[in-house]
Design goal:
Elements (H helix, E strand, L loop, with lengths): L1 H19 L10 E4 L5 H13 L2 E6 L2 H8 L7 E4 L5 H15 L6 E4 L15 H29 L2 E5 L11 H20 L6 E7 L9 H14 L2 H7 L1 H16 L6 H12 L6 E4 L1 H11 L3 H9 L10
Parallel strand pairs: 1-2, 1-4, 2-3, 4-5, 5-6, 6-7
Length: 317
């Protein structure tokens, strides 16, 4: 009985491997638009796809980032500046893309731009911080996607939305988690709405990786600043000892981030180039072997595992 089960599982994964190895034809004629290419995943993906021969349209927040990227890639890659929080910038970028792709349409849209800082408890955030995170990570994704959607539909192409493992397991950085849960929901809805148009939607859920978004020095300094600015009653509720312990937990987590960004960009590339892309990609060993299993546990057990090392607030009951 067990032998048959093992054989069945082995055959299933063999067939899946073979199916996913099939590559889309004429990649050199396909355009891919990527947001957040100044650094991190977006920058690496732009270079990776350019090296493979695709026509990359890379959106950077700054002209400096765009110039540096152009210096690292072929003449095929072209750049545009884009602020995903401003509709006029999105509209201008969409027109720019339309002029480049023409009647062929846009094969790939990768919504990669994102922010996480400051990394604090929800009560320590101010309204401006919360709104900035939501504007970039969720509202920006929605607005860019809906603006580019006619071009993607024309090509019967792909949309790749970068979520996070924190979009599956809300663990810390509360508003960031909210934004990524929103990306997951938007992607699921979009996939079902567009199923009859030949457009495929993939979600990439990275674990902890070391990028500009998780810069150690900046993250810790911003955390200190938010604690310094917190109202007196918040400081009394949690206490300095709690902050110091939480600070060290976050520092340890940031130091442990993976530096192998290819684990993420390879997922993105597969979603864009495979005939049969996956709906979800979990990128990183922590995502695959810790957070995904934890997400299936009973809530009370998951809560214990995720928070057992957290300190107690000064005014805890």
């Amino acid at each position: 009985m067990w032998l048959y089960l093992v054989a069945f599982v082995g055959l299933y994964y063999l067939l899946r491997w073979y199916r996913e190895k099939q590559v889309v034809s004429h990649l050199q004629d396909k355009y891919v638009f990527i947001t957040g290419c100044d650094s991190g995943f977006g920058n690496l993906l732009a270079r990776q796809l350019d090296a493979r021969g695709l026509r990359v349209l890379a959106a950077c927040l700054t002209e400096k980032g765009a110039e540096q990227l152009r210096g690292q890639t072929s003449d095929r890659l072209e750049t545009v500046t884009l602020d995903v929080t401003k509709m006029e910038s999105i509209t201008a970028a969409t027109q720019w893309v339309k002029e480049h792709v023409g009647d062929r349409g846009l094969w790939g849209l990768v919504n990669n731009a994102g922010i996480i800082k400051p990394v604090t408890l929800c009560e320590w955030l101010n309204t401006e911080d919360s709104m900035n995170i939501l504007k970039v990570n969720l509202i920006g994704v929605i607005q860019v996607t809906l603006s580019m959607l006619p071009l993607v539909r024309r090509a019967r192409g792909r949309i790749v939305n970068v979520s996070s493992i924190l979009g599956r397991v809300a663990f810390f950085a509360g508003v960031y988690c909210i934004s990524k849960y929103g990306v997951e929901a938007f992607s699921d809805i979009l996939r079902r709405e567009l199923q009859h148009f030949g457009v495929k939607i993939s979600i990439v859920e990275p674990g902890y990786f070391r990028t500009g978004m998780t810069n150690l020095t900046q993250s810790l300094e911003e955390m200190k600043q938010r604690w310094k600015e917190a109202p007196k009653h918040i400081k009394e509720t949690y206490g300095q000892q709690y902050f110091d312990a939480f600070y060290n937990i976050i520092k340890k987590g940031l130091l442990g981030c993976s530096t192998n960004l290819n684990l993420v960009t390879d997922c993105m590339e597969h979603a864009l180039t495979s005939v049969y892309p996956r709906t979800r990609y979990s990128a990183g060993w922590d995502a695959k072997f810790f957070f995904i299993p934890v997400s299936y546990l009973p809530t009370s057990l998951a809560d214990y595992i995720l928070t057992r090392s957290w300190p107690k607030p000064a005014q805890a009951v």
